[in-house]
Amino acid sequence: MSEDKSPARRRRFLKTAAAGAVGAGAMAAPMVSNAQTTTLRFQSTWPAKDIFHEYAQDFAKKVNDMAGSRLKIDVLPAGSVVPAFQLLEAVAKGTLDGGHGVVAYHYGKNSALALWGSGPAFGMDPNMVLAWHYYGGGEALLVEIYKSLNLDVKSFLYGPMPTQPLGWFKKPIANVADLKGLKYRTVGLAVDVFNELGVAVNPLPGGEIVPALDRGLIDAAEFNNASSDRVLGFADVAKNCMLQSFHQSGEQFEILFNGPKYNGLPNELKKAIDIAVEAASADMSWKAVDRNSKDYIELKKAGVNFYKTPDAILRAQLDAWDKVIAKKAGENAIFKKVLDSQKAYAQRVIPWQNDYMVDFKMAYNHYFGKK
User: Fold this and answer.
1) CATH code (residue 184)
2) Are 280 and 54 spatial neighbours (Cβ–Cβ below 8 Å)?
3) Domain span at residue 201?
4) Number of domains making up the chain
5) What are the two backbone dihedrals, phi and then psi, of residue 234, each rounded to the nearest 5 degrees?
6) Residue-wise pLDDT tens digits, 37-75
7) Residue 123 region, left (φ>0) first, then alpha (ψ -120 to 50), else beta?
8) Which pLDDT score, from 0 to 100, does residue 207 have?
9) What is residue 334's predicted lDDT score, i.e. its pLDDT?
10) Are 171 and 229 within one domain?
11) 51/104 same-domain check
C-alpha cells in the first residue's frame, strides 16, 4: 500500500498534532502551578553590610532564579539564628537548612579543616586550592573528616579569595620583633602560626573585630580584603594596613547544606545547585576584582597608609608554618593525609603555572610604571 502524501493528509496530521500539544500543555500546566515551594533557611557567617554576605545572597539568587517556584533559599546575616562560629553544628543538626562561611571557622573540631584556607598551601594560589579540592582528592578528604565528626552536611567549596593582607596596625610593622606581644585577631591555623611568632591571638568573628580594635581589646587584626575592611570600618580605628601575607593566601568560601534536606531534593534541583555554585564562584571572582580595586582607592583617599609586608616577615611565616604543620601532622593522621595530598598536587601544578604564565607586572610597568 502506498503512503498518502496528499495535502489533505498533511493538514489532518498537523491539526491532530496541534490538538495533542494543547492537550499535553493543559495537563502539564497544573503540575507547574501547583508545585510546592521548598524554602531553605540559610545563615551566613558575615555581617549584613559585608560584601561576603552579598556573595552569599548572590549564590542564593542564582539557585532561586534557576529553580523557579520550586526552591527558594533565604539568607540571613551572622548571628540571626546562631553565632558565626556555630554555623556548622547548626546546619548539621537542622537548626538551619544551610549556611555560607569558610572551612577554617571549623578549625576547633579538627585542625585539618583549617588546611582549606590557612597557610601557604605549598605555593598554590586560591584557584589552585579549589582545583586540588575538586580534581586532586580534597573533596573526598573533606567528606571523610565531616563523616568522622558525625556531621551530616553537604559541602560545596567555591569563590577563590585574593591573598589576604597581614592586617591593620596602629603603626607599620617593620620586622618580626614588632609583632611580638601584640594582641591580634586571626582564625584557623593562622592562630598557631602567629602564636609561633610571639603574637597573642584572639580569633574573633568578623563583626566583632573593629569594635574590639576601637576599645583596645586587640592591638591589630586581619580580616580579608579592601571591600570588607572598608565597610566594616577598619579605617576608622587604624590607618596602617600591611599588604601580602602567607597566613591565608589560598582561601575559599564554603556553602553548607543540611544533609537530609539536600538529599531529599529532586535531582534536577541538586543539579541547579551544582551549576549555581560554579556560576557564583566565577561571578564572585570577577566582582572581587572590580570592587576590591575600587575600595582600595577609597581607603587611600581616607588616609590609610598601605605597606608591603617585609620579606623577612613572610619568610618567618613560612618557617613558623613548617613547625606548626609538623606538630599537627604528628598528632592527627587525617591532617597529614590532607597535607600530603596538597603537597603532591602543588608539586605537579605549580611548575606548569610558573613556566606558562607571563610576568604581568612587566606589561603593567610598560604602560603605567617607570621605564
Assistant:
1) 3.40.190.10
2) no
3) 167-249+304-354
4) 2
5) -60, -40
6) 999 999 999 999 999 999 999 999 999 999 998 999 999
7) left
8) 83
9) 98
10) yes
11) yes
